Every structure is written in structure tokens, then in C-alpha cells.
Amino acid sequence: MAQQYGDVFQIKLGSRNVVVLNGEDTIKQALIKKGTDFAGRPDFISFKLVSGGKSLAFGSYSNLWKAHRRIAQSTVRAFSTSNPQTKKAFEQHIISEIRELVKVFLKKTKQEKYFRPSQILTVATANIISALCFGKRYSYEDVEFKSVVGRNNQFTETVGAGSLVDVMPWLQSFPNPIKTMFGNFKNLNLEFFAFIEDKVTQHRATIKPGIIRDMTDAFILALDQGKRGTNGVLLGKEHVPPTVCDIFGASQDTLSTALQWIVLLLIRFPEMQTRLQQEVDNVVDRTRLPSIEDQPSLPYVMAFIYEAMRFSSFMPGTIPHSTTTDTSVNGYHIPKNTVIFINQWSVNHNAQKWANPGVFDPTRFVSKTGDLNKDLTNSVLIFSVGKRRCIGEELSKMQLFLYTAILAHQCNFIANPDEPSTLDSCYGLTLKPTPFSIAVTHRGSMDVMDSYVTDLQKADNSM
Ligand code: HEM
């Protein structure tokens, strides 16, 4: 549509006018140059159901939102990427989880030969954020956890590009399939919020002065005392569960979708899998695992990850925005409270910027001298830009790097020859690959991973 109608066009969805912004220049003009004007969220009914109605991700632009975002962002960094020590601790969580994941992959291959990896990858990513939020991981067989994290598809299907009820509220007034779907969405949010509230209650009961065990403790300490703004108290203890809910919810579906794409691309392009393995083997010998310090020496691994994000554009749009004031972009007037869709996909598939954008080719990010082309990697748009830019970007990139490098170092991924070799996806807030199955074999033994985790446990016990 952007090719036909230009970078700014308007569509009518039910009762709402929606302006769609396309292309790098237009999107940056709106979200960066006129950041405040475009930083709102629509007053959609569905948005009010997320995180007990106090979501920072789905909440409107205000002083409360600014304070909320600041606390969430600094806490996420403090537990993941803010300095070398936190990075090391975060890396240890990730590597321990990858070891569990590889064990499950090998077991499934032994039992079923080819198996679907999507739910396993969902639990793996949920476990890492759970370790940060609650200091606890779950077994891959845990029924409660699987049901809480496994139903996220329904969430992203409803939020993706605005649910029908948001733009046609009267659909709620009589029985119809959309009303049923919306009812499921409501229940899903209530159940997820209850799961988080329960964890927060348990934390309050066991928290000890001077000891911050995890992000939930950090939020309790930061928010229980209340954050004041010029017009009185902005944030208080009632914001702890919504903040944890936002962090947990925002990371889970996005990261597991990213990993599904990475695994799919490994099996669809075996020659690239071999090149990844060769690069990792050249830098990291077989007696240790790849670590975050190896990242600058692994440009092809990084190129593969950026190309996976560009090619799949698995978050094709952002969460819908809205205008906070009368404004304009590219000379078009846009009234206050207009719903804005940001088309990230259009940036990643612009044929003027990317040669053959529909072709998966990581080498587009590697220069002639073999370095990663950082100007080009910065042009991939998947975490959005401006005031609403994702707060989990650094954490996600670190996680994706370790997953890709370690899985390439440790495993071979094999496609099921009985399945069509497609790269198709299903639509929602995130684009997921259509179901596919794989087999996984080890490139050696579990020894290096096992001894890494044993050493960690020994160090833990001696503290
Ligand atoms: C590959 C993984 C991820 C991708 C591609 C991604 C992408 C995005 C996008 C596109 C948005 C919407 C931005 C906008 O509306 O303009 C967003 C918002 C957000 N993300 Fe992420 N995200 C990822 C992982 C994470 C993680 C791991 C966390 C938490 C640690 C997180 C926390 C958030 C939050 C809190 C917001 C709301 C920001 C706001 O409204 O101010 N995300 N993310």
C-alpha cells in the first residue's frame, strides 16, 4: 500500500481513522523529531485490560508514564546489561537455560526424531525472564507455567494492529465470534495478572531488608515508598504487579518468536549454519562455551541475527501509537488523538536501501574486510525508535547473541524432509513462522555445558 499511496496514508478501521506511517525518514520524523506529538497510545478497550489497567507499555503519555518507564528501564538494565558484573550474572542465567534447552532438544529428537520446537523455545525464554523477575526457573513439564506462557498467541493476535472490538466497540453487545475472542483475551489477561500478583505477594512476605533477590524485590523497594511528581504521588505499591507483568509479557512472546525464526533459518539454510559453526569454532575452542566477550570477534553470528530480524520483521508494526496534540508529518495535518500505525516492515524491506530485500542474506551486513557494518545494522527497525522505543533492546540482543553462538557451537539443526521448505508466517502483533519441526544432534557431548553449570553451582554454594 505504501508504494501505491506514499509514506503517509489514512485508512478507516470501523469507527476510527488510522494514519499509517511508512519508510525510515517519515517514521523518524514522527517518532524522533516530533517524539512527544506521537508518543500517545490509543484509548482502546483492549489496552485497558493489560497489566491490571496500569500498563506502562499500553498506557497513555503522561508524567506518570514517564516516571514509570524510567523505573522499569533502569531496573531492567540493573539486572541485565548495566555493567560487566550484571552482564556476567545475566549470561550465567542464559547459559544455564540453554543447557536445559539442549537437553530437551536431544531427548525430543531421541523420542520423536522430528519435533516442533516452538513451545519449548517459549518456555526457555520465559524461564530467563522468570529468573530475572522471580529468581526462579520452571521445568519444561510444569503445567501451570506452560499454560501461563503458552497462551501468549491469543494476546498478540488480539493486540496486533488493533483488535476489531477496539475499532467497533458495539461488537461486544451481542453474541458473535469476535466477542468470544475478546472474552478469551480478557480472561487471558486476568489469569496472567493473577499469576504475577501471586508472585509479588510471595515476595512481599519473604523480602528482607538490604537484600534484593530479583527484579520484583527491586520494584517493591522502588515503588512502595511512592514516587512523587509535581502534582502529588504518581506511582505507588499498586504499580508493582503491573510493572512486572509488563516486563514479563513484553519479553516473552517477542524473544521466543525471534528464536523460532533463528532456528527455522538455521534449518532452511544449512550452508549458513555451517558457516556459523565454522566462525564460532575458529574463535572459541571446544573446551569452553562462547561468551559475551566473544561478540566482537563473531561478525557473521551478529550479521545472521540482524538479517533474521530484518528479513522476518517479526514485529512488523509497533504497538499502536496516537497523537498527543494536533501535529503534522510530511506536510499532512494530523489531529490530536489520531491512531497511528508504524510500519516497521516497510523500513526493513525498502528495495532502495536493501538489495533483494526478500532474500535472506546475512553477508549484506558484513563488509569486504569481514567486519560487521554497524551503519547498516542500525538501519534495521524492530525495537521502534523515539520515546516509546523498547526498553528490552540491549537485553534481547545479548540473549539472541548467546543463544545463536552457543547453539551453533554445540548443536546441529536438521530440517524434517517430509515438510515443505517454507519461510511463511502467521499474522499477529508478532509474525511467527508457520509450524515446523526439527531434529537436533550434539556436535560433541554435554561435558562443556555440564561442567560450566557445575562450576557455577560450586561458586554459589561457597558464597
Ligand atoms: C526481540 C525482542 C523484542 C522486540 C523485537 C521488541 C520490540 C518492541 C516494540 C516494537 C515495542 C513497541 C514500541 C512502540 O510502540 O513504538 C516494544 C515496547 C516495549 N518493550 Fe519490547 N521488544 C523485545 C523484547 C523486550 C524485552 C525483553 C522487554 C523487557 C525486558 C521489553 C519491554 C518492552 C516494554 C516495557 C515496552 C513498552 C515501551 C513503552 O511503551 O514505553 N521488550 N518492544
TrEMBL record:
Family: Belongs to the cytochrome P450 family.
Superkingdom of origin: Eukaryota
GO cellular component, one term: endoplasmic reticulum membrane
CDD domains, per the entry: CYP1B1-like
Lineage: Eukaryota, Metazoa, Chordata, Craniata, Vertebrata
Name the UniProt record assigns to this protein: Cytochrome P450 1B1
Entry cofactors: heme
Organism (species): Acipenser ruthenus
Binding site for heme: C390
